[in-house]
Amino acid sequence: MSLEKSNYKLIYKKSNKGDFILLKGNIQQEREKVLIRIGGKNIDKIFNEMEKVLKERKLIEEENSSVNSVRLKLNQDIGPIVGGFLILIRRSREPLEWIPYFDSLIQGNKYLGSKEVLNHIWFSSIDISDSINKKLNLKYQLNPKVLDSIGAAAKIIAKKMWKIME
């Protein structure tokens, strides 16, 4: 499975069950699917900071917003990198603590190789999930156990390679 020609959307939604961030994408002309969903405390602050950085870098277009949601279309090249970052923070105890690093990680200047690592995290998650989910019809394209495992590995890379959050 390849999402390289995918269109990515970063969405913030408010609901009765809590607020959450979705990353959606369409796979080679297929309909748009939820790829990652994260929620929890401070999710609004996390989204707002990510949106601010992406707007400053001119990496998004605002699609449509309402009282309960904000939809942002990501540039194709940044979609997998944002996806890799979401995998990194997805099961973190304090995901808000990762947000100050977001801008530097997606640029790849301060933390050498970070863009490539986040990109590989994203595509590795897709490939592994695809092989595990072949016979299953899941609501989400990416397997949560795969995301948990790769997210844990990504945190180790960030701590050891870039000395983040030590």
Please characterize this protein's 3D structure:
- The protein has a five-stranded antiparallel beta sheet, with helices on one face.
- It has one domain (8-161).
- It has helices spanning 43-56, 79-90, 99-107, 114-133, 144-161, and strands spanning 8-13, 20-26, 32-39, 60-65, 69-74.
- The longest helix is centred in the last third of the chain and has 20 residues, at 114-133.
- The chain is an alpha+beta fold.
Mean pLDDT, nearest integer? 89
Instruction: Identify low-pLDDT runs.
Output: none
Apparent shape: globular
Number of strands: 5
Helical run tally: 5
Proportion of residues in extended strands: 15-25%
**What letter string, H or E per element, gives the SSE order?**
EEEHEEHHHH
Secondary-structure blueprint:
Layout: E1 8-13, E2 20-26, E3 32-39, H1 43-56, E4 60-65, E5 69-74, H2 79-90, H3 99-107, H4 114-133, H5 144-161
Helix pairs in contact: 2-4, 2-5, 4-5
Quick overview of this protein structure:
It contains 5 helices and 5 strands; from the N terminus they run βββαββαααα. With 166 residues, the protein is of the alpha+beta class. The relative contact order is 0.15.
Please describe the structure with a list of short key phrases separated by commas or semicolons.
166 residues, alpha+beta, five-stranded antiparallel sheet, globular
